[in-house]
Specification:
mainly beta, 2 domains, twelve-stranded antiparallel beta sheet, disordered N terminus
Length: about 250
């Protein structure tokens, strides 16, 4: 039986997970499209969604993160028809079975200006079509079977593996969480799944000030120069109570 999980876990956004082409070498569904979509040059506030079928083997759950980036802008009417079961059915039909549960993640919007893939699963040609909506494979996440998915617990820092560079342009705003130790995390995406009226413009005004755990801070600031936020193998991410996603930014002012 498929477990019912319609999460807004930003940790799963944009391949914030295990990027490993060696692992992906064994995934090539018969009849599946192999072309990867082009990533738009202007990413800020660009909408996207993810479907994440899970498979379990040898005591490990593998979450396959498929993303609409480069394929479509996740039309709301079609997105509303996608369920955990429809993801499981589509994945098993395309990849020969194995999925036992799934996550529906979105709709989300990028809060960066461009993304550079530095290899790994982010560059995979594998795709999945669910209810007519196409998604490209962007990441894998492995957790102990029965464990809590990364990003489920808010204000809990998780280490993930990926190889990407997020680019934020000078003169534009970034939105940041600062933990009790002074570590700064820059928002990579926001979601309307928790707060349907949330917009990019409102991020400065309705930041999670009233629900922050003790010692945490939230701020918005304007960049004086370009920010290249690189994940070279591993990085740390965290979600706020609105399920927006932030990546650690070691170079940010405290």
């Amino acid at each position: 039986m498929t477990s019912a999980r319609r999460l807004t876990t930003a940790a799963l956004a944009a391949g914030a997970l295990t990027l490993c082409m060696a692992t992906m070498a064994g995934i090539s569904p018969a009849g599946a499209a192999t072309g990867s979509g082009a990533v738009p040059k202007e990413m800020r506030d660009y909408p996207y969604c993810e479907v994440i079928p899970d498979s379990v083997a040898a005591g490990v759950t593998t979450e396959h993160v498929f993303n609409t980036l480069g394929f479509n802008t996740c039309p709301s009417d079609t997105w509303a028809t996608i369920t955990e079961q429809s993801i499981v059915d589509a994945y098993n039909a395309a990849y020969g079975g194995g999925a036992t549960s799934a996550t529906v993640n979105g709709r989300r919007h990028w809060v960066l200006d461009s993304i550079q893939s530095n290899g790994g699963t982010t560059s995979s040609p594998d795709t999945l079509t669910v209810n007519g909506m196409e998604f490209g494979l962007k990441a894998l996440l492995t957790i102990p079977a029965g464990g809590t998915a990364i990003g489920t617990d808010i204000y809990t820092v998780s280490t993930v593996q990926r190889d990407t560079t997020y680019i934020f342009k000078a003169g534009r705003k970034v939105y940041e969480l600062i933990d009790p130790k002074g570590n700064v995390y820059t928002m990579q995406s926001y979601t309307t799944a928790v707060a349907p009226k949330l917009t990019l413009k409102r991020l400065s005004k309705i930041g999670p000030y009233d629900k922050l755990p003790q010692g945490w801070r939230y701020r918005a600031r304007t960049l004086s120069q370009d920010l290249n936020l690189t994940a070279a193998g591993t990085t740390q991410i965290v979600n706020d109570y609105l399920r927006n996603t932030f990546q650690i930014n070691p170079s940010a002012p405290k």
